[in-house]
Design a protein that fits this description.
The complex is a heterodimer of chains A (about 110) and B (about 110). Chain A is mainly beta and about 110 residues long. Chain A is built from no helices and eleven strands. In chain B, about 0% of the residues lie in helices and about 45% in strands. Chain B starts with 8 loop residues before the first strand and ends with a strand.
Chain lengths: ~110, ~110
């Protein structure tokens, strides 16, 4: 099915470890986004990419880096994970006036 | 801070119409009203959007007041599968822009048998 695919679905990290969350979309969308969602909260934008080759900071970029590898793929990297980064991470894409398409999320726990 | 205000929770009987209100009193002339829902920690799902006219699709209807300061999402025949958190968001010129969407806490809608 067309949509946004995120990997992995679950991850447990130790404090200080690094990891990369992968996201790919097959809808030929220009824009892609990374959000985090803490329990009982709405989504907060970490980084976004309006088009291939460009990235910009969102509301909560500290501790994260991103790469827009090509039009399909947008990855999020945690260089040195901290317990405060325990959250659910959602990738999304958009290419029209008909709303964002979200992935199913990555549930990350940092111990 | 979110640019919209929604009640934290609502109940609705299965088979009845669910009416979810949203206040956006500071909405600008170029901002659309978007509705999303999130079912049990899944990724949010787009429902509908509008600028100033009422809109309807296969999922829901959106009623926007004439002054555009509030809107109502209507699920005409709610089912148990409509239990979710519903988010109302305002965004200018459609969402394929560099605008940072601000997500509030939404309304938790519980459909009861």
């Amino acid at each position: 099915n067309a949509g946004v695919t995120q990997t992995p679905k679950f991850q447990v990290l130790k404090t200080g470890q690094s990891m990369t969350l992968q996201c790919a979309q097959d809808m030929n969308h220009n824009s892609m986004y990374w959000y985090r969602q803490d329990p009982g909260m709405g989504l907060r934008l970490i980084y976004y990419s309006a088009s291939e080759g460009t990235t910009d900071k969102g509301e909560v970029p500290n501790g994260y880096n991103v790469s827009r590898l090509n039009k399909r793929e947008f990855s999020l990297r945690l260089e040195s994970a901290a317990p405060s980064q325990t959250s659910v991470y959602f990738c999304a894409s958009s290419g029209s006036n008909y709303g964002y398409t979200f992935g199913s999320g990555t549930r990350l726990t940092v111990v | 801070d979110a640019k919209t205000t929604q009640p934290p929770s609502m109940d609705c009987a299965e088979g009845r119409a669910a009416n979810l209100p949203c206040n956006h009193s500071t909405i600008s002339g170029n901002e659309y009203v978007y509705w999303y829902r999130q079912i049990h920690s899944q990724g949010p799902q787009y429902i509908i959007h509008g600028l100033k006219n009422n809109e309807t699709n296969e999922m829901a209807s959106l009623i926007i007041t004439e002054d555009r300061k509030s809107s109502t999402l209507i699920l005409p025949h709610a089912t148990l599968r409509d239990t979710a958190v519903y988010y109302c968001i305002v965004s200018p010129q459609g969402q394929d822009s560099n605008y940072q969407l601000i997500w509030g806490a939404g309304t938790k809608l519980i459909i009861k048998p």
